[in-house]
Specification:
Largest interface: A-B, 35 and 38 residues
Shape of chain A: globular
Number of domains of chain A: 1
Number of strands of chain A: 3
Strand content of chain A: 5-15%
Shape of chain B: globular
Low-confidence stretches of chain A: 1-7
Structural class of chain B: alpha/beta
Order of helices and strands of chain A: EEEHHHH
Number of strands of chain B: 6
CATH architecture of chain B: 3-Layer(aba) Sandwich
CATH class of chain B: Alpha Beta
CATH topology of chain B: Rossmann fold
Order of helices and strands of chain B: EHEHEHEHEE
Radius of gyration of chain B: 14 Å
Mean pLDDT of chain A: 84
Radius of gyration of chain A: 13 Å
Mean pLDDT of chain B: 89
Strand content of chain B: 15-25%
Number of helices of chain B: 4
Number of domains of chain B: 1
Strand order of the largest sheet of chain A: 1-2-3
Distance between the termini of chain B: 28 Å
Oligomer: heterodimer
Number of helices of chain A: 4
Helix content of chain A: 40-55%
Largest sheet of chain A: 3 strands, antiparallel
Structural class of chain A: mainly alpha
């Protein structure tokens, strides 16, 4: 998994998710492109699958997304925690990630 | 249309088994040990193995597709350098979430049922417009 060991690498909610690391992607810069190191999945993809409305990121939704992506729930929770810290950047990426010209 | 798929790392891994179960030859970046590879290397791998790329990453793959067409044409390699196709499944904008696996499977069945080849073409699907071919970003 080609992710950076930059200073921004972190283990979100380490007490709850000791096996999950989120780090910037050296190929795709920006916090909005950070990914789960152990699973190689970008945070934005998980968040985009959950929906970002109030109350949408509940336990049921986190469990569903974790199941669909075949990752532990703690990894999906870590992604949500990271999203809450970088909400503006990730929202902006998701809102602009639509097909142009189609 | 081709029905061999290569799922990008941003797409649900569970979709692999769901597509195989209905007869589609499908692999993922995870299965191929290619997680974290650049998008251009992912597209090259898909082209070399004859698979349509399935992705949620419209930004990068639309640009990549345009570059593929422009550069292969400029170098006189337009016939030889064909990728099997790219399908972007939009996750939804605003507060909406993505699609359930069943809906994604249905979309891919619809894609596979399209008449004609998908080579060197890019397609997209969203809940509002449905499935359509997208003009390349070349200007």
């Amino acid at each position: 998994m080609a992710v950076t060991k930059a200073a921004t690498e972190r283990k979100p909610a380490e007490a709850d998710a000791p096996n999950v690391t989120i780090a910037l992607d050296p190929i795709r810069p920006g916090v909005e492109r950070a990914r789960l190191v152990e699973y190689g999945i970008p945070v934005w993809a998980l968040i985009g699958d959950m929906g970002r409305g109030e109350g949408e990121m509940d336990d049921v939704e986190i469990a569903r997304v974790a199941s669909d992506y075949m990752i532990p729930e703690e990894a999906a929770r870590a992604a949500v925690a990271y999203y809450r810290e970088h909400r503006h950047a990730i929202d902006a990426f998701l809102d602009s990630n639509y097909v142009v010209g189609g | 249309m081709i029905a061999r798929f290569y799922l990008d790392e941003n797409v649900k891994e569970f979709l692999v088994a769901a597509l195989i179960a209905i007869g589609f030859d499908t692999v993922s970046t995870s299965q191929m040990g290619r997680k974290g590879a650049s998008d251009f290397m992912q597209l090259l791998f898909a082209a070399q193995t004859g698979r349509v790329v399935i992705t949620h990453d419209s930004k990068d793959f639309q640009q990549l597709h345009g570059a593929w067409l422009a550069w292969s044409a400029a170098w006189g390699a337009a016939i030889a350098a064909q990728h099997p196709g790219i399908l972007i499944i939009e996750q939804g904008s605003g507060q909406r979430g993505g699609l359930p696996v069943t809906q994604m499977v249905a979309n891919l069945q619809a894609f596979a049922a399209l008449p004609g080849p998908s080579s060197n073409l890019i397609f997209a699907w969203n809940a509002i417009v449905g499935l359509r071919e997208v003009p390349p970003l070349v200007r």
